Amino acid sequence: MYKSELDKHIQNNSVSNSFILFGESSFLIDRYTNALTNKEGASLLKFYHDEYNFNSAKAHLSQASLFGDQNILIIKSEKKIPKKELDALIEQCEKNSDNIFVYAYYGTEHAAYAKPASGTKTMCVRFFHPNHTEAVATITQIAREKHVNIDSYTINHLLSIQGGDIALACNELEKLSVYERAITAKDVDNMIFGLAEISIESFIKKILNKKDFKSDLLSLLEHGEDEIRILTALTSYLTQLYMFNIYIRVNGAPNAMEILGYKAPAFVVDDKATASIKIKPPTYYKLHELLLGSELKMKSSHIDKSAILLSTLIRAQQLL
């Protein structure tokens, strides 16, 4: 099924308790994973990428909750779960309607999950990248949920600034929520381009998502950002993701206090955790080697820093 069909089931309170979410839009996969598993008091177990363990996953769905509440299992991965294991996990949901299982698949073999297993109530949902109208509607809904007073014109402006990337636009809503009044296009400009860290973060996410970043790079440089600072910001961001990656591999789930040294909002932790597992350790090494080498070249030569930066960012996307 598609997003529109799932929305109808949600509205009619007729959703199943096991889901396979997949497709082109990681943003929508994440959003619906959170929506379908947001149950107060539930016992939640979440696996990221290589941390998935079938025995632990099955045991979680099989056990009785300590307080009689729901057991929820979330698996986020670019790898396919073996069919027998996936069927066994779904079977636990068929046996116990209080269980909830969401398999958020970020890989590209979509055909494998087009239809649910025979005899099950599993909902297989494919999410395509939202078109402009859908993106505006989604951002409007999220703004309402976050109590951000923003009209459709300003949302269109925000989306335009972020190059049509709905994930980046929604991240900015968190920052715009500081205004306790109606948000204007000028507020968007001041908040996004007035704070270098924010614009650079959005820019970095475009690079990591292998989207076109050239207009954003030009805008950053026009707003006074230095080429070396942009490069070191990317290096720092990747280092942080690598710390998330290592911690998740060792402990199974992220802990912002131990990784970052401070408590971060849940959406920030989940966003970084999801991004971190999409890059393999050898790739982190190659990326750092590239970025540090380019930084040294910028600091030790008199050639065009902008040319070095552009070349480096293109090569970085090729490594991802």
Map the helices and strands.
Layout: H1 3-11, E1 18-23, H2 26-37, E2 43-48, H3 54-62, E3 71-77, H4 83-95, E4 100-105, E5 123-127, H5 132-145, H6 152-161, H7 166-176, H8 185-194, H9 196-208, H10 214-222, H11 227-251, H12 256-260, H13 266-277, H14 281-300, H15 305-319
Helix pairs in contact: 3-4, 5-6, 5-7, 6-7, 11-13, 11-14, 14-15
How does the helix and strand content classify structurally? alpha/beta
CATH architecture group name of the largest domain: 3-Layer(aba) Sandwich
What is the succession of H and E elements? HEHEHEHEEHHHHHHHHHHH
The CATH class of the largest domain is: Alpha Beta
Mean pLDDT: 85
CATH topology of the largest domain: Rossmann fold
Structure description:
This protein is of the alpha/beta class and 320 residues long. It folds into 3 domains: 125 residues, Rossmann fold, CATH 3.40.50.300; 64 residues, Orthogonal Bundle (Helicase, Ruva Protein, domain 3), CATH 1.10.8; 93 residues, no CATH class. The chain has 15 helices and 5 strands. The protein has a 5-stranded parallel β-sheet, sandwiched between helices. Helix 3 packs parallel to helix 4, helix 6 crosses helix 7 and helix 11 packs across helix 13. The longest helix has 25 residues. It is globular and about 70 Å long. The protein starts with a helix and ends with a helix. About 2% of the residues have low confidence.
A few lines on this structure:
This protein has 320 residues and is α/β, with parallel strands linked by helices.
Which properties best describe this structure?
single chain, 320 residues, alpha/beta, Rossmann fold, Helicase, Ruva Protein, domain 3, 3 domains, 5-stranded parallel β-sheet, 15 helices, 5 strands, globular
